[in-house]
Amino acid sequence: MTKYEGVPESCRAAYDEAFRRLEAAFVRGNKLMICGNGGSAADAEHIVGELMKGFLLKRPVAERIFPDGVPDPALGKLQGALPALSLNGHPALAAALVNDTDAALIYAQQVLGLGRPGDVLLCISTSGNARNCCLAAQTAKALGVEVIALTGEGGGRLAALADCLIAVPERETYLVQQLHLPLYHALCARLEARFFGGEA
Q: Which residues of the chain are under the pLDDT cut of 50?
């Protein structure tokens, strides 16, 4: 996969900036948190899957982790990971927030509990106006967590909250999503090459 494969021309500078921010965070030992709604929630999970295990490259780590020999053959299949988590998959916490406080805080509450200075929050919203993502971004900024927003054209309310805005040149939800997938695939492949195979 080439560096810009699937990245719209108008997004390349922002895509490069997002890569640099994520690269620096992972070098520091920080993590990536991701949030979104509906199809964007599925995209958040998809990105975690590409970063937390091999995507296009083999990422063997067993010899480094177990220099005296692998204690179980299954452990020999472990792959190098970049620390990333989706904030979408915590139904008990979500139910508690709906019942006790405010459903819109689902991502902000997790950023408060998990976020540390130097971490990165990726907010995915086709409109850029998802309230729960905006509240998460505001919380992140207060904690020294960098914010990258992946949106449709214009960026919506997230544009003013993001340290880095990647706004693809579409407004219709499904068309925005069709551009998001190859873009984040390119970003994941580039990060993988940087940390596990040498940047092209």
A: 200
